[in-house]
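Task: sequence design from structure.
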């Protein structure tokens, strides 16, 4: 286990996406334009007409993953995650009319009516992701 403790929070950035906006791609665009290095995604709600995600299917190494695309209305109930060294890693919970899902947000999700997310910038951190001996990326301080 490792943890990192700093005391300064920077900007709070609210992103509103409208019908047809790509979700992850729009967030990445804001991260780049606002020059965000490290942040936490603290809130996210909305709807999608196309939802692309992956989930883990196995407990061994390397993990087997299932990539799924759902076309049709999806209600996003929660999204959270980190931006580390400018790179977002978000997980979310969402539902169709018949089923509830959770997984890792992938490129290609399309906003149906609206999407709202809030990023809180973390200052004084110099974090990155490195892969361990099993190929799993973890957060660490830059050397």
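Answer:
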């Amino acid at each position: 286990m490792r943890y990192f403790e700093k005391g300064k929070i920077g900007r709070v950035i609210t992103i509103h996406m409208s019908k047809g906006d790509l979700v992850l791609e729009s967030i990445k665009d804001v991260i780049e334009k606002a020059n965000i290095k490290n942040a936490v995604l603290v809130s996210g709600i909305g709807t999608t007409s196309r939802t692309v995600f992956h989930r883990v299917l196995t407990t061994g190494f390397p993990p087997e993953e299932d990539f799924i695309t759902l076309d049709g209305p999806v209600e996003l109930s929660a999204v959270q995650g980190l931006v580390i060294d400018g790179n977002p890693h978000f997980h979310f919970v969402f539902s169709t009319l018949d089923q509830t899902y959770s997984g890792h947000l992938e490129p290609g999700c399309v906003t149906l009516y609206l999407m709202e997310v809030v990023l809180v910038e973390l200052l004084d951190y110099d974090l990155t992701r490195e892969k361990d001996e099993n190929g799993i990326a973890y957060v660490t301080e830059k050397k």
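The chain has a mean pLDDT of 93.
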